[in-house]
């Protein structure tokens, strides 16, 4: 339950449109809904401004269906991450109130048009990094942020980055996604005056160690203003970037 829903219920009680027992019924699952196999944190949006996010990898299909149906019933706009196409094919029949993005591997639950604020640039070193970048971008858009995508501008052809620098420099925050040696965030952070969130990807040859070399490069960057998330963690980068962008835009988190 988010702040707007809570406020609406309280206003209806105050104005006599909703009796106290009915209001209590709506509050019964605060702080969480116990499904035995899962405890859905419906209080999270009230605490931190964003609803619970469902990580789908490893979940039993029937468990996942019950979780999604409960969230759909409450008309909560939320996302389920790391959902494979195979998993989506198994659950898509449960409701038409879901949109699946195969590239980002994200399912948006109860999608709705929301006012988007500020601007976040999502930048990749190469096209192979795009799935991770899209996870960040879709997360940002679902949470109400304007996103500009600048893909395939890595350091092997750095002129491509310079020719797109105007799109990047006027953003409130930048998500820089790169594999291989992971140099892109350091280069960007040396050219802009806003926070850069570095996302190492598992893209690369053997000594890349499935993203470890990119992660270490980003952690050891001599350019200030960089924070680093885990390997392939586009969602985490998008979440942090949303908090930063909304703070810069004077909107705080989702109300």
From TrEMBL:
This is PurE domain-containing protein. Signal peptide: none annotated. It comes from Caloramator fervidus. SUPFAM superfamilies: N5-CAIR mutase (phosphoribosylaminoimidazole carboxylase, PurE). GO terms for molecular function: hydrolase activity. GO terms for biological process: 'de novo' IMP biosynthetic process. Residues 118-250 form the PurE domain.
């Amino acid at each position: 339950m988010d702040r707007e829903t809570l406020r609406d219920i309280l206003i209806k009680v105050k104005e006599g449109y909703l009796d106290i027992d009915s209001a209590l019924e709506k509050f019964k699952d605060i702080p969480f809904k116990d499904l035995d196999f899962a405890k859905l944190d419906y209080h999270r949006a009230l605490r931190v401004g964003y609803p619970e996010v469902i990580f789908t990898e490893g979940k039993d299909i029937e468990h996942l269906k019950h979780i999604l149906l409960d969230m759909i019933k409450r008309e909560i706009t939320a996302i389920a991450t790391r959902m494979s196409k195979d998993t989506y094919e198994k659950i898509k029949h449960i409701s038409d109130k879901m949109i699946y993005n195969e590239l980002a591997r994200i399912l948006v639950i109860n999608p709705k048009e929301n006012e988007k604020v500020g601007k976040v640039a999502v930048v990749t070193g190469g096209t192979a990094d795009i799935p991770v970048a899209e996870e960040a971008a879709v997360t940002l858009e679902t949470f109400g942020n304007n996103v500009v995508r600048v893909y395939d501008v890595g350091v092997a052809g750095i002129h491509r980055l310079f020719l797109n620098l105007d799109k990047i420099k006027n953003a409130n925050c930048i998500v820089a996604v790169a594999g291989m040696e992971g140099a892109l965030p350091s280069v960007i952070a040396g050219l802009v005056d806003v926070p850069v969130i570095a996302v190492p990807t598992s893209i690369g040859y053997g000594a890349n160690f499935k993203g470890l070399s990119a992660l270490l490069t980003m952690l050891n960057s001599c350019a200030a203003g960089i924070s680093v998330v885990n390997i392939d963690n586009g969602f985490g980068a998008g979440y942090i970037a949303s908090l930063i962008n909304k703070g810069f835009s004077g909107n705080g988190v989702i109300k």
